[in-house]
Amino acid sequence: TAQTHILELACAFMCALPVPHGQLALYVQEQASVQFVIPKQERQFLILDWIHRAEHVVVSYNHKHKDIVKKPWDNVEFNMETFALTLKNVQKNQSGDYVAKMRTICFLPGIYYIFHYKWALSYISAPVEAPVLTALSKQSRGDDCNVTVTCRGHDLLLQSNCNNMTCFPQSMISSAVSSLTVSVKSGFIVCNHSNQVSWKNVTETLDLLCPPFEGNNVDTITVHCLLRKTLQHIINLRLQEIAVGYTAH
Description:
With 249 residues, this protein is of the alpha+beta class. The protein has helices at residues 2-16, 206-209, 217-248, and strands spanning 19-29, 34-36, 47-52, 56-62, 67-70, 76-78, 85-87, 96-106, 108-124, 132-141, 144-153, 156-162, 167-168, 173-174, 179-185, 188-194, 199-205. A hairpin with a 2-residue loop joins strand 15 and strand 16 (188-194). The chain is elongated, with a radius of gyration of 36 Å.
C-alpha cells in the first residue's frame, strides 16, 4: 500500500544517515604496532567494514555468517571476538583516517542502520633526539638562585628564566614534529623534548649552576670589613690596656 511504501522510504532515509561518534587521534612510531578497538557496547552489528582513507576496505566481516574478507596487507590482524583491527610494523602509507562502519537491520529487512567510529592515525618516523640545556647567565644571593637557560631540541629553541621554584616561560613550544618544555623539579632544571610517541630530557642541578656564595661579592666584602673592624677594635683595646698599665707605673 501507499502507507507501507511511505514508511519504507522514511525508514530508509532515517537509517541511511550515518551516525558518527567523533574522531580519535592515534600516533604510531615507525615499525611499531597500533590497534583500533570498537567500544564493547557498540559491537552489535550485522556487517562491519574497516575502511582506510574513506575508500579502501581493509577488512569486511559478516557477523551472521562469520565471513571475513581481508585487504592484501601482510601486517593486518582482525580479532573475530573483539572485532579490533591491528596493524603491525606500520608503514608510512598506512597513515590517515580509519573508519569502523557498522550496519545492522533497521526496522525492515534489507534496510540498514549505519553508524561508525573514526580514528586519525598519524605516522611518526622516529623518536626524538636528546635535547641540549645551556646556562647563559646566573646570579645567586643566599639561598636564591636565578638562571637564564636555553633548551634546544630539533629545530626548536626555548629560552627561560629559572629560580628555585619555577621557570618562565615554561609553556610548551611546539612544532609539527616535537615540543619543548623547561621546568624545575626537586632542585633540578629539566629540559624535556617530546613528540607523540617518545620523550627525552636532560637535567642540571641548581646547586651546580649556583654554588653557595658564587657571585656574592657584596656579602664577601661585608664579611671582610666586619672582620677588619673587629680586629682593629681588639688591637685598640689592647693598646689602651698597655697605655693604662704604663701610666700606672
